[in-house]
Each structure stands twice: as C-alpha cells, then as structure tokens.
Amino acid sequence: QVQLVESGGASVQAGGSLSVSCVASGDTSKRYCMAWFRRAPGKEREGVAVITRTGATVYADSVKGRFTVSTDNAKNNLYLQMNGLKADDTAMYYCAASPRPWPGCRLARSDYPYWGQGTQVTVSS
C-alpha cells in the first residue's frame, strides 16, 4: 500500500542543524497527510510536524520555530529541517502517512496507518 523509508539521521552537536528525509512509494491517495513523529528513549512516540497535500502545516509546540516540514509536489519525498537542535530532540524519527483528507491533518498517532522504520537523530550537548 504505502512504503516509507527515512534517511539522514546522524549525530550532531547541540545548536546545530540537520535534515532528515523520507521517500514514499505506493498509493498516493493513502498519503494525503505526511508527518514526522519521534520517539525518545523511555518516552512515548510524539508528533513533530505534519504537512497536508495542500501544504498546510502543523507543528508540535516543542519544535515550533526550529523545525520546518516540507514535501515535493508529488508528495513522494518528505523532509524535516531541524535547526537549533537540543539534546531533547534526540530520538528515532519516523515518517508517517495518512489518507485523511478532511477536515485536515493532525498530529495524532492514531490517524496514521503507515509508518517507516525510523532514522536515528542524536544531539550531543
């Protein structure tokens, strides 16, 4: 149905920047919403950012102003530009997709039936 593969995770110093990517394949209709979630050690998976097919975005308060989510026009690639990284940003970052077309995309884990395997981002202080 939908396959998502993340890449770009790395170790970076606090205050630095990093971009992670996700390549999507499969049914385009099943990925109206494209989102990034993350799971830090010992923590629950949390929503980071989501972008709709129309380009509207929603960010978690913890990353607002520091992270930027984007896609290409075909929604085949999802990106997350992370600036001003903090130690708390250390997590496995997951790409997710949802067919939800209305009323819109949100950072709710239950909305997303399709997930990638994750890419590790480590921020050292």
Give a quick summary of the entry.
The chain has 125 residues and is mostly beta strands. Helices cover 0% and strands 50% of the residues.
How would you describe this protein?
Helices cover 0% and strands 50% of the residues. It has 125 residues and is mainly beta. The strands form two sheets. Strands 2, 4, 5, 6, 9, 10 and 11 form a seven-stranded mixed β-sheet that branches. Strands 1-3-8-7 form a four-stranded antiparallel β-sheet, with no helix packed on it. A hairpin with a 6-residue loop joins strand 4 and strand 5. The radius of gyration is 13 Å and the shape is globular. The model has no long low-confidence stretch (mean pLDDT 94).
Secondary-structure element pattern, one letter each: EEEEEEEEEEE
Overall helicity: under 10%
According to DSSP, the number of beta strands is: 11
Major β-sheet, in short?
7 strands, mixed
Low-confidence stretches: none
Shape: globular
Quaternary structure annotation: single chain
Computed over alpha carbons, the radius of gyration is 13 Å
* C-alpha end-to-end distance: 40 Å
- Which percent band covers the strand fraction? over 45%
> DSSP helix count?
0
State the secondary-structure class. Answer: mainly beta
Mean pLDDT level: 94
Characteristic terms for this protein:
0% helix, seven-stranded mixed β-sheet, 11 strands, mainly beta
Task: Please specify the SSE layout and strand pairing.
Blueprint: E1 2-7, E2 11-13, E3 18-26, E4 33-39, E5 46-52, E6 57-59, E7 67-71, E8 77-82, E9 91-98, E10 114-115, E11 119-124
